Amino acid sequence: MILMEHIIREGHPVLRTRTEEVTFPLTKEDRKLAEEMLQYLINSQDEEMVEKYNLRPGIGLAANQVNSLKRMFALHLEDDKGEQLSFVAINPKIVSHSVEQTYIESGEGCLSVDRVVPGYVPRYARITVKFMTVDGKEQKMRLKGLPAIAFQHELDHLNGIMFFDRINEQNPFAEIPDATPFIRE
Ligand code: NI
User: Which terminus in the chain has less CB density within 10 A, N or C?
Assistant: First the structure.
């Protein structure tokens, strides 16, 4: 079971390392990693589990955040229609994206970052993505809103990029061209 003590924090080189494509069929270890990453997110959104294990709530987790260089991440969140999205994306790719951008008005956070980093993180407003599922099926998806933002945040992790790399250093709250803010309740 993944706990906070297993989550790699900023400063560790694994967070700056590009992860490697996963081959299919998955090994037992790869499958276990995928299941455990998703389970962490599910647990972290369950009040009882949060209290019992002192978990920090999260909606996404990438393999290098738990010290693995496998190209996979988990997402567990609701879309803007209140529908639950819960999956592990293996060898994920953005196949196309909108010109329009977005950003979370209150900024982004990360399980690997124990501080608030203020500023807007520009993201594509809509993306079409492809990835492999745990069962080796190719999945294509269109995402917008929070799921699109979270997907881009996690894909960045797999390329060694942290969210704050994308914040304007001179002016963290500089207006982002062609962007509509995403307001998180
Ligand atoms: Ni993160």
Answer: C
Note the pTM of the prediction, 2 decimals.
0.97
Task: Count structural domains, the chain.
Answer: 1
Ligand 1: centre distance to CA 138 (Å): 24
- Give the domain extent around 92: 4-182
**CB of 103 within 8 A of CB of 137?**
no
| Residue 8 CB contacts under 8 Å (≥ 6 apart), including other chains | 14, 15, 64, 65, 66, 67, 112
CATH number of domain containing 83: 3.90.45.10
Distance 140 CA to ligand 1 centre (A): 23
Question: Residue 66 C-alpha to ligand 1 middle, in angstroms?
Answer: 11
**pLDDT tens digits, residue range 7-61?**
999 999 999 999 999 999 999 999 999 999 999 999 999 999 999 999 999 999 9
State the Cα–Cα distance between residues 174 and 121, nearest whole angstrom. 10
Residue from 154, 169, 175, 185 carrying the catalytic annotation: 154
Residue 138 is among the residues annotated as catalytic for this protein: no
In sequence order, the 6+-apart residues with CB closer than 8 A to the CB of 15 are 8, 64, 65, 112, 157, 160, 162
